[in-house]
Amino acid sequence: MFKGGRPDEGVPLRYTRGRTITLAGVLLSCLLLAAGTAGASYVLCLGTYSPEEAENLHKHLTVLGYPVYLLYGENYEVRLGSFDTREKAEAAAEKLKTEEKIVVRIEEEEDLDQYQLTWDSPPNSDREVSQDTFHDHSDPRVQKMMSLALDLFGHPYKYGGTRIGKGIDCSFFVQTIFRGMGISLPRTSGEQFRVGKGVEKTDLKIGDLLFFQKTYYAKRKGKHKGVTRINHVGIYIGNGEFIHATRNVMRVTISRFDEAYFTKRFAGARRVLSE
After folding, report:
1. Which of 64, 167, 222, 234 stands 20 to 30 A from 32 (CA)?
2. Which residues contact 269 (CB under 8 A, 6 or more apart)?
3. 244 carries an active-site annotation
C-alpha cells in the first residue's frame, strides 16, 4: 500500500470575492449527454505529489505492471493509461482503490487538452466585483457580454462541465457567453485560440479572450518529453481583470491579469468581437 501524496485534493478556496449573482438559464444540447463515444480512450488521473512521492509512486506502480507515467511541470502529476474502454479504466481504478488504497478519477484522454491551471496555489485576493466594471460601458455589446458573464459569477466549476447549474469549465463558460451574443465559438480552449485575430497585451479591450498554457513533461521509458498546450481561457473585462471558470477556486471568479501567477502562463489574446 502506498501512503504518499493526497490525490485530487486541489487547493483551498482562497478567493473570497463577495457575492454570487443569479445564474443565467441556458439550454444545453441533448447530444452532450452521450458519454463514452466510440473510439474514446481513457486515462486514470491519480493527482499531484511532491517530486519524491511522485517518483516513488511511479516506481511502485511500474513494478506492479501498471501503465504509469509522470507529467512534470511546477507539480508532478501521476497518470495511468490509456485504456481503450471505460470498463477497463474502471476495473483498473477499482483495483487501485482496493489494493493500493488510491482513489483516482477517470478522464477521456482527448479532454485532457482542457486541463486547467491545476493544483497550484493561486494569488490571494479579497476584492469584490466592482459595480463600475458592470455599468460604465457605452457599447451595448460590452454591456450585454458583461451582464452574461457576471450572471455566472460564482457559478461552480467542473472539469469538462457543460451543465449550467451543475458545473462548467473554462472554455464552456466562454462559449456560453459568446453564444448569448450570437457568436459561435469552438468547444475547447485550444480551438478557441485559433479564432479571431491576435491582440497584444498593451492593446487589450473588454471582451478579448485571454489564453494560458502549461508545459507537460511525460516520462516514458526513462525519457522526458515536453508538450506545451493551451489549457485555460478567460474573458478580459477591463481594469486589468478577467473573468474565468477555474479549478483553482472551483468556480467562476475574477482575477488580476497582471498577477505573476497568470502573466508567466500567458499564451496570447484573441479578439472575436468585431471592431
Report:
1. 234
2. 198, 199, 200, 201, 204, 208, 209, 210, 211, 236
3. yes
**Average pLDDT estimate for 237-251:** 88
Mean pLDDT of 121-127: 39
Instruction: Say how far apart CA 243 and CA 121 lie, in whole Å.
Output: 18
Taking the C-alpha atoms of residue 62 and residue 96, their distance in angstroms, rounded to an integer, is 13
Q: Residue with C-alpha cell 479579497?
A: 126
Q: What's the pLDDT tens digit per position in 87-103?
A: 999 999 999 999 999 99
Question: Across all residues in the chain, what is the average pLDDT?
Answer: 75
105 contacts: CB under 8 Å, gap ≥ 6: 8, 44, 45
C-beta of residue 45 within 8 angstroms of C-beta of residue 77: yes
Q: CB within 8 A of 229, min separation 6: which ones?
A: 113, 115, 190, 213, 214, 215, 216
Are the beta carbons of 225 and 214 closer than 8 angstroms? no
Nearest-angstrom CA–CA distance, 189 and 159 = 13
Is residue 149 pLDDT above 80, yes or no?
yes
Residue that has been written with the C-alpha cell 447530444 in this structure: 31
Residue 27: pLDDT band (50, 70, 90) is very low
58, 137, 155, 244: the active-site residue: 244
Residue 248 CA, distance from chain mean position: 9
Q: Which domains does the chain have, with CATH numbers?
A: 30-110 (3.30.70.1070), 131-271 (3.90.1720.10)
155 in active site: no
Q: What proportions of the chain, in percent to the nearest 5, are helix, strand and coil?
A: 30, 30, 45
30 is catalytic: no
